[in-house]
Amino acid sequence: MLGLRSCLTRVLAARTLAPQMCSSFATGPRQYDGTFYEFRTYCLKPSKMNEYMEKIKKNIHLRTAHSELVGFWSVEFGGRMNKVFHIWKYDNFAHRTEVRKALAKDREWQEQFLIPSLALIDKQEFEIAYLVPWSKLEKPPKEGVYELATFQMKPGGPALWGEPFKRAVNAHVNRGYSKLVGVFHTEYGTLNRVHVLWWNESADSRAAGRHESHEDPRVVAAVRESVNYLVSQQNMLLIPASFSPLK
Protein backbone atom coordinates (compact mmCIF):
# COMPACT_ATOMS: atom_id res chain seq x y z
CA MET A 1 0.00 0.00 0.00
CA LEU A 2 2.81 2.33 0.88
CA GLY A 3 4.55 1.47 -2.39
CA LEU A 4 1.37 2.21 -4.41
CA ARG A 5 0.91 5.56 -2.67
CA SER A 6 4.54 6.48 -3.41
CA CYS A 7 4.06 5.56 -7.07
CA LEU A 8 0.91 7.68 -7.39
CA THR A 9 2.71 10.59 -5.77
CA ARG A 10 5.47 10.42 -8.37
CA VAL A 11 2.97 10.23 -11.26
CA LEU A 12 0.97 13.22 -10.03
CA ALA A 13 4.15 15.20 -9.46
CA ALA A 14 5.26 14.50 -13.04
CA ARG A 15 1.91 15.71 -14.38
CA THR A 16 2.15 18.88 -12.34
CA LEU A 17 5.66 19.61 -13.55
CA ALA A 18 4.99 18.85 -17.23
CA PRO A 19 3.52 22.27 -18.15
CA GLN A 20 6.45 24.00 -16.47
CA MET A 21 8.91 21.91 -18.46
CA CYS A 22 7.13 22.69 -21.76
CA SER A 23 7.12 26.42 -21.02
CA SER A 24 10.90 26.47 -21.41
CA PHE A 25 10.40 26.01 -25.16
CA ALA A 26 8.30 29.19 -25.55
CA THR A 27 9.68 31.67 -28.10
CA GLY A 28 8.30 34.76 -26.38
CA PRO A 29 5.17 36.41 -24.96
CA ARG A 30 1.99 34.86 -26.29
CA GLN A 31 -0.30 36.78 -28.63
CA TYR A 32 -3.65 36.79 -26.86
CA ASP A 33 -5.28 39.52 -28.98
CA GLY A 34 -6.73 38.07 -32.18
CA THR A 35 -6.20 41.29 -34.13
CA PHE A 36 -3.61 40.95 -36.86
CA TYR A 37 -2.33 42.92 -39.85
CA GLU A 38 -1.94 41.79 -43.42
CA PHE A 39 1.05 43.30 -45.21
CA ARG A 40 0.66 43.39 -48.99
CA THR A 41 3.42 44.37 -51.41
CA TYR A 42 2.65 44.66 -55.12
CA CYS A 43 5.35 45.03 -57.74
CA LEU A 44 3.81 46.70 -60.77
CA LYS A 45 4.85 46.37 -64.38
CA PRO A 46 7.10 49.16 -65.66
CA SER A 47 5.13 52.19 -66.90
CA LYS A 48 1.94 50.93 -65.16
CA MET A 49 2.45 52.60 -61.77
CA ASN A 50 0.43 55.73 -62.51
CA GLU A 51 -2.41 53.77 -64.09
CA TYR A 52 -2.63 51.47 -61.09
CA MET A 53 -2.63 54.35 -58.61
CA GLU A 54 -5.40 56.11 -60.52
CA LYS A 55 -7.54 52.97 -60.51
CA ILE A 56 -7.05 52.24 -56.81
CA LYS A 57 -7.72 55.86 -55.84
CA LYS A 58 -11.00 55.82 -57.77
CA ASN A 59 -12.14 52.47 -56.36
CA ILE A 60 -10.59 52.16 -52.90
CA HIS A 61 -13.95 52.92 -51.28
CA LEU A 62 -15.26 49.62 -52.66
CA ARG A 63 -12.49 47.76 -50.85
CA THR A 64 -12.62 49.65 -47.55
CA ALA A 65 -16.35 48.94 -47.34
CA HIS A 66 -15.33 45.40 -46.36
CA SER A 67 -12.39 45.90 -43.95
CA GLU A 68 -10.11 48.55 -42.47
CA LEU A 69 -7.20 49.96 -44.43
CA VAL A 70 -4.39 51.08 -42.12
CA GLY A 71 -2.19 52.68 -44.77
CA PHE A 72 -1.31 52.67 -48.45
CA TRP A 73 2.07 53.84 -49.76
CA SER A 74 4.22 53.91 -52.86
CA VAL A 75 7.87 52.93 -52.39
CA GLU A 76 10.19 55.85 -53.08
CA PHE A 77 13.54 54.31 -52.10
CA GLY A 78 14.70 50.82 -51.18
CA GLY A 79 14.38 47.67 -53.23
CA ARG A 80 12.51 47.25 -56.45
CA MET A 81 10.95 50.20 -58.29
CA ASN A 82 7.24 50.53 -59.20
CA LYS A 83 6.11 49.05 -55.91
CA VAL A 84 3.19 49.75 -53.55
CA PHE A 85 2.79 48.61 -49.96
CA HIS A 86 -0.43 48.50 -47.93
CA ILE A 87 -1.59 47.23 -44.53
CA TRP A 88 -5.04 45.83 -43.71
CA LYS A 89 -6.41 45.15 -40.23
CA TYR A 90 -8.51 42.14 -39.23
CA ASP A 91 -10.14 41.16 -35.95
CA ASN A 92 -9.16 37.50 -36.40
CA PHE A 93 -8.78 34.86 -39.11
CA ALA A 94 -12.51 34.20 -39.27
CA HIS A 95 -13.04 37.90 -39.98
CA ARG A 96 -10.54 37.81 -42.84
CA THR A 97 -12.24 34.72 -44.31
CA GLU A 98 -15.59 36.52 -44.25
CA VAL A 99 -14.07 39.57 -45.94
CA ARG A 100 -12.44 37.51 -48.70
CA LYS A 101 -15.73 35.71 -49.39
CA ALA A 102 -17.60 39.01 -49.52
CA LEU A 103 -15.05 40.51 -51.92
CA ALA A 104 -15.35 37.50 -54.22
CA LYS A 105 -19.10 38.17 -54.45
CA ASP A 106 -18.77 41.96 -54.84
CA ARG A 107 -19.31 42.38 -58.59
CA GLU A 108 -18.63 46.12 -58.50
CA TRP A 109 -15.22 45.59 -56.88
CA GLN A 110 -14.38 42.70 -59.19
CA GLU A 111 -15.43 44.40 -62.43
CA GLN A 112 -14.37 47.98 -61.77
CA PHE A 113 -11.01 47.33 -60.14
CA LEU A 114 -9.77 43.81 -59.47
CA ILE A 115 -10.05 42.22 -62.90
CA PRO A 116 -8.76 45.27 -64.86
CA SER A 117 -5.87 45.81 -62.42
CA LEU A 118 -4.50 42.25 -62.58
CA ALA A 119 -2.83 42.99 -65.91
CA LEU A 120 -0.88 45.84 -64.25
CA ILE A 121 0.66 43.71 -61.48
CA ASP A 122 3.87 41.75 -61.95
CA LYS A 123 4.26 40.22 -58.48
CA GLN A 124 2.37 40.07 -55.17
CA GLU A 125 3.67 39.28 -51.69
CA PHE A 126 1.64 38.75 -48.52
CA GLU A 127 2.52 38.50 -44.84
CA ILE A 128 0.48 38.17 -41.66
CA ALA A 129 1.89 40.01 -38.66
CA TYR A 130 0.95 40.90 -35.10
CA LEU A 131 1.92 43.99 -33.19
CA VAL A 132 4.53 42.97 -30.63
CA PRO A 133 3.15 43.02 -27.05
CA TRP A 134 5.01 46.23 -26.12
CA SER A 135 3.87 48.23 -29.17
CA LYS A 136 0.58 49.75 -30.24
CA LEU A 137 -0.39 51.39 -33.51
CA GLU A 138 0.23 55.14 -33.29
CA LYS A 139 -1.06 57.86 -35.60
CA PRO A 140 1.44 60.57 -36.58
CA PRO A 141 0.57 64.21 -35.75
CA LYS A 142 0.54 65.37 -39.38
CA GLU A 143 1.43 64.37 -42.93
CA GLY A 144 4.94 63.17 -43.63
CA VAL A 145 6.92 60.24 -44.98
CA TYR A 146 7.28 56.74 -43.61
CA GLU A 147 10.12 54.29 -43.28
CA LEU A 148 9.56 50.56 -43.11
CA ALA A 149 12.62 48.92 -41.58
CA THR A 150 12.54 45.14 -41.95
CA PHE A 151 14.82 43.02 -39.77
CA GLN A 152 15.48 39.34 -40.34
CA MET A 153 16.39 37.99 -36.91
CA LYS A 154 18.10 34.77 -35.89
CA PRO A 155 15.82 31.76 -35.20
CA GLY A 156 14.61 31.56 -31.64
CA GLY A 157 11.88 34.17 -31.57
CA PRO A 158 11.40 37.09 -29.17
CA ALA A 159 12.59 34.97 -26.26
CA LEU A 160 16.05 35.18 -27.83
CA TRP A 161 16.19 38.70 -29.28
CA GLY A 162 13.05 40.44 -28.03
CA GLU A 163 14.49 42.50 -25.17
CA PRO A 164 17.65 43.70 -26.99
CA PHE A 165 15.53 44.66 -30.00
CA LYS A 166 13.06 46.52 -27.79
CA ARG A 167 15.88 48.49 -26.17
CA ALA A 168 17.27 49.45 -29.59
CA VAL A 169 13.87 50.71 -30.79
CA ASN A 170 13.14 52.58 -27.56
CA ALA A 171 16.56 54.22 -27.65
CA HIS A 172 15.57 55.94 -30.90
CA VAL A 173 12.07 56.77 -29.64
CA ASN A 174 13.21 58.19 -26.29
CA ARG A 175 15.72 60.49 -27.97
CA GLY A 176 13.11 61.76 -30.44
CA TYR A 177 15.03 60.85 -33.60
CA SER A 178 11.89 59.48 -35.24
CA LYS A 179 8.25 58.75 -34.34
CA LEU A 180 7.34 55.11 -33.95
CA VAL A 181 4.12 54.02 -35.66
CA GLY A 182 4.26 50.31 -34.85
CA VAL A 183 6.44 47.21 -34.45
CA PHE A 184 5.17 44.00 -36.07
CA HIS A 185 6.32 40.37 -35.83
CA THR A 186 5.49 37.97 -38.66
CA GLU A 187 3.19 35.00 -38.10
CA TYR A 188 2.93 33.86 -41.73
CA GLY A 189 5.54 34.55 -44.38
CA THR A 190 9.23 34.61 -43.57
CA LEU A 191 9.46 33.84 -39.85
CA ASN A 192 11.65 35.67 -37.33
CA ARG A 193 11.04 38.86 -39.29
CA VAL A 194 10.25 42.16 -37.57
CA HIS A 195 8.83 45.21 -39.34
CA VAL A 196 9.27 48.62 -37.70
CA LEU A 197 7.19 51.43 -39.19
CA TRP A 198 8.54 54.93 -38.54
CA TRP A 199 7.21 58.42 -39.38
CA ASN A 200 9.19 61.57 -40.17
CA GLU A 201 8.20 65.00 -41.40
CA SER A 202 10.35 64.59 -44.51
CA ALA A 203 13.12 62.49 -46.01
CA ASP A 204 15.60 65.19 -44.96
CA SER A 205 14.43 65.19 -41.33
CA ARG A 206 14.75 61.41 -41.34
CA ALA A 207 18.32 61.69 -42.65
CA ALA A 208 19.21 64.32 -40.03
CA GLY A 209 17.80 62.18 -37.21
CA ARG A 210 19.66 59.14 -38.44
CA HIS A 211 22.98 61.00 -38.51
CA GLU A 212 22.42 62.30 -34.97
CA SER A 213 21.49 58.84 -33.68
CA HIS A 214 24.75 57.42 -35.04
CA GLU A 215 26.62 59.77 -32.73
CA ASP A 216 24.45 59.11 -29.66
CA PRO A 217 26.31 56.67 -27.36
CA ARG A 218 23.07 55.38 -25.80
CA VAL A 219 21.59 54.54 -29.20
CA VAL A 220 24.85 53.06 -30.45
CA ALA A 221 25.15 50.81 -27.39
CA ALA A 222 21.57 49.54 -27.71
CA VAL A 223 21.92 48.90 -31.43
CA ARG A 224 25.22 47.06 -31.00
CA GLU A 225 23.56 44.72 -28.53
CA SER A 226 20.67 43.95 -30.87
CA VAL A 227 22.80 43.34 -33.98
CA ASN A 228 24.17 40.22 -32.33
CA TYR A 229 20.82 38.64 -33.21
CA LEU A 230 20.43 40.22 -36.65
CA VAL A 231 20.76 38.34 -39.96
CA SER A 232 19.84 41.11 -42.43
CA GLN A 233 18.03 44.43 -42.71
CA GLN A 234 16.22 46.34 -45.44
CA ASN A 235 14.73 49.84 -45.32
CA MET A 236 12.14 51.41 -47.60
CA LEU A 237 11.06 55.05 -47.75
CA LEU A 238 7.29 55.18 -48.23
CA ILE A 239 5.13 58.01 -49.61
CA PRO A 240 1.49 57.84 -48.43
CA ALA A 241 -1.21 57.86 -51.08
CA SER A 242 -3.80 60.65 -50.96
CA PHE A 243 -6.43 58.14 -49.75
CA SER A 244 -4.21 56.50 -47.12
CA PRO A 245 -5.55 56.76 -43.54
CA LEU A 246 -1.95 57.13 -42.33
CA LYS A 247 -0.69 60.30 -44.03
Automatic annotation (TrEMBL):
Gene3D superfamilies: 3.30.70.100. It comes from the Eukaryota. Residues 37-136, 146-245 form the NIPSNAP domain. Signal peptide: none annotated. SUPFAM superfamilies: Dimeric alpha+beta barrel (SSF54909). Transmembrane segments: none annotated. Belongs to the NipSnap family. This is Protein NipSnap homolog 3A. It comes from Equus przewalskii (Przewalski's horse).
